[in-house]
Design goal:
Layout: E1 2-5, E2 8-11, H1 14-19, E3 22-23, E4 29-32, H2 45-58, E5 65-73, E6 81-91, E7 95-104, E8 107-117, E9 154-160, E10 176-182, H3 190-196, H4 203-208, E11 214-223, H5 227-233, E12 238-243, E13 247-248, E14 251-260, E15 265-275
Helix pairs in contact: 2-3
Length: about 280
């Protein structure tokens, strides 16, 4: 089932309702936070990234498909309406460069950049191969570190580096591997791929087996998938892998990859995250 919201055809899926935007007379896009994707403070960062991505996807001047997205979280969103500005600052023959901002009550809470491009066939190879993994159906679903509404929107099946059951400081590795997809299943697109890139729980939780306050400051997603790759993936599982390289002076990095069940690398992601003692 679908219904119209402004100029958009919106699915009844919670994700599509959450990223729904309506273009305004000044060219900006109006949206609203979604209780279905609530985090401990503000919304799930992945849904905010997807909303920013959707503003680019809906823009009438867009050239090509997403290649890169970076979102900077300057402050937490409050429940309610927001406005996104997506500006194509430079359009070349095959690439287009965007600046992004999200405001509530005239206060900028998120900034970002995006690059879209017209893809063409060239030589290609994946140097980062999908790791060996059990079939998704053989892996039980996992739970989050604390109850959060957004976790219900995803089917997460970790088989390496699951969230600790006991917070006793005994962690020794930040690597996690898991099967994941939207819940209920939904055909993959660029907006949902951007959100799925943020489903990995903070690496400090896994590495230390200790709950500490955290917050993502900046999230980047690099899209290797084409539209054809997304259609071929459909609503199937993705294999996700995430780890950190260093934890120091209140900050840590987080790097991840997302493959289709066929073994195609669809996207890679990087974050910088702060944590408190």
């Amino acid at each position: 089932m679908a219904f119209l919201l402004g100029s958009m055809d919106v699915s009844s899926h919670e994700f599509d309702q959450a990223i729904a935007l309506q273009q305004q007379a000044d060219g900006s896009f109006a949206g609203h936070t979604s209780a279905a994707y609530a985090n401990m403070v503000g919304p799930f960062g992945g849904i905010s990234a997807a909303q920013m991505m959707n503003a680019v996807l809906l823009h009438p001047q867009r050239l090509g498909d997403p290649v890169a997205l970076t979102v900077n979280f300057a402050a937490a969103l409050q429940d309610g309406a927001f406005r996104i500005e997506a500006v194509p600052v430079r359009t070349n023959r095959s690439t287009q460069h965007w600046t992004l901002s999200l405001c509530q009550q005239d206060e900028i809470l998120m900034t970002g950049t995006a690059i879209t491009a017209v893809r063409r066939e060239t030589w290609g190879v994946d140097d980062e191969m999908m790791p060996d993994a059990p079939a998704p159906e053989e892996v039980p679903t996992g739970q989050g570190p604390v109850p959060m509404e957004w976790i219900k929107r995803y089917e997460i099946r970790p088989f390496v580096g699951a969230i600790p059951r006991i917070w006793d400081g005994s962690g020794d590795n930040s690597l996690s591997r898991l099967w994941l997809r939207d819940n209920p299943p939904r055909p993959l697109d660029f907006a949902s791929l951007a959100a799925l890139a943020d489903v990995f729980f903070p690496r400090v939780f896994v590495r230390r087996a200790t709950l500490v306050p955290i917050g993502t400051i900046s999230l980047s997603v690099y899209f290797h998938a084409s539209e054809a790759d997304l259609r071929a993936t459909g609503d199937g599982y993705l294999l996700g892998q995430a780890r950190a390289k260093a934890f120091r002076n209140g900050y840590f990095d987080q790097a991840g990859e997302l493959w289709s069940e066929r073994g195609e690398l669809l996207a890679v992601t990087h974050q910088i995250v702060y944590f408190k003692e």
